[in-house]
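pinning this so it doesn't scroll away 📌
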Amino acid sequence: MNESPESAMFRPPINRAMRALDRSFFKKSVPLSAARILDNKQISKYRTELGHDLLRLDRMPAVRSVRDSDGQEAKALLLRPEVKPDDASTWSPKLSDLVKASQVSLSPYNLELDYDYWNYHDIMSAILPEAEQDELPTGFSIVGHVAHLNLRDQYLPYKHLIATVLLDKNPTIRTVINKTDEVGEQNEYRTFSYELLAGDPDMNVEIHEENCRFRFDYSKVYWNSRLNTEHRRLVEKFQPGEAVCDVMAGVGPFAVPAGKKNVFVWANDLNPDSFASLDDAVRRNKVHRFVKVFNEDGRTFIRSSAERLLKTDTHVKIHKGVSRLKQPASTVKPIATLTSPKTFNHYILNLPASAITFLPSFIGLYVGREEFFTPHTDAKLPFIHVHCFSTKSDGNKEEEIKICKEVSEQIGYEMKPGSMETEGEVQVWDVRDVAPMKRMFCASFRLPGEVAFRVAENESRIQPLPSKERT
């Protein structure tokens, strides 16, 4: 709403005692003036010339249909509240000239406003107690047709009001829920308990991200729309023909876009529902030639996937713009053939609450496999991108030191803040704020040779376990 002196005239009626939404309560008649245009062809011209006199209100067109004394319909321009039809001293010189020339005529006009006119913020400002309005509950996540609230305690008495208005004012939303616990607090799948506040109880959603489609039951898998930028940032680091191991892949926000870039991805998730949705996304987005999906424990998968990739031969032929309706791809000469590397170029560990504790699985990962890496070949040891939570401070310097210390303790090798290209250094990336004193980071570093080739006492290599795998 405009914050002009008369803006209060256009605010909705106030009812701080309302607990069940009464849409009929929000009706208001605002007395104004209308400048009837005698020649409809001049509307655009006069609208420009009378700019200072016109009513300028969000979501409210200035041009209206009115009827003259004979009942004939005509066009009129709504004027600011200060302009009075019977007081020429309130008219601008231009308006006075047009009236004297009989180009326009002024008359009273009652502007009728109702619930449909006002937005979510307007309605909630008229309902919630003023003491609760320092920060209205406007922040929420939209996942498909579901609006996901995380209401503070002071707003819980009004939760159904908030949800109902939110549903009314957002036509793409069909379901409003409120989180009742912390993500991952109750189980290892990062799902959360919630209550339905308004709308349809259907939690099966379809979303689009990075030109990819995902379908899943939001109540059974983890998804965070606010991580779209982080998904894109990491995928941009992967090059066509590289191999990526996505250890906690979820429904595939890293894996599927990477597959569209012709990156070979081994994507794993422990949650059977995530695994099923991941498999669906791989097929739905036609990246099955590049993305393999697995359903294993993450720690086991780090080691078993590295062992299996060494023994896997994957070749994908690339064709340029072949229309299968016109000509089968099998009859067209490929422009290139991509062969998967024998070792991963990147590992993603996107389980910020505990991913750092998975790092010991990289100790001795390539014992006896030194010949696969420099200086014996051009292949370098992989980058590891591990997400984590920490506190927040100006510049995040304290957090960088703290995260590097945690990484060092997990892999038994001293790591310091710096460039991920330099062995022994960690690049700490600020992903997003999670809570007032909690921030999500991504620590990226190249696996040090001393860690990858370390032979531990009583070393016993983890053998691949039977798993669900689909290609």
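📌 and the second one:
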Amino acid sequence: MVKLRLKRCGRKQRAAVYRIVAIDVRSRREGRDLRKVGFYDPIKNQTYLNVPAILYFLEKGAQPTVTVHDISKKAGVFTELHLNQ
């Protein structure tokens, strides 16, 4: 099963930045991802989402984590998902 979840990036002992990735459930947090679909910086409150890639994985049955779901909901990804169906 595939999940959309956060992958921590950045230097140690610094503010974390995260990539939003599609990854197999059995992989660890920093494990090998299937595809990078976005970026999230909680300190600067910046978000970049590759909406077509996210929609592709959601249509194939990928499950977003709670945090990724909230980020995607703010960006309006789920309204586009319902419009496509």
